[in-house]
Amino acid sequence: MSHNPLDTLIHMANQIAANNSHYGSEAEAAERVRVHLKKFWARSMKQQIIDYLHEDGSQLSPIAQAAIAKLEVRPGATDAA
């Protein structure tokens, strides 16, 4: 994997997913990942990873894909859900 910013975000999302994969079901793990991304990632980071999921997403783990699918960055919103 090269070291461009998107590759770094993909790697980070997959690591967060792996670190949360032991929490119950895949859905519960994905929710924990979603909450983490919402709290700790900048809006621009979230938008990049959401765009990647919609364009390809193949390098994301299933848990990361499920978590990112639940993120939505709305222009002008104070908090990205």
UniProtKB/TrEMBL annotation:
Query: Known Pfam families for this protein?
Result: FdsD
Show the InterPro entries listed in the entry. Answer: Formate_DH_dsu
- The molecule here is called Formate dehydrogenase subunit delta
The species this protein belongs to is: Marinobacterium aestuariivivens
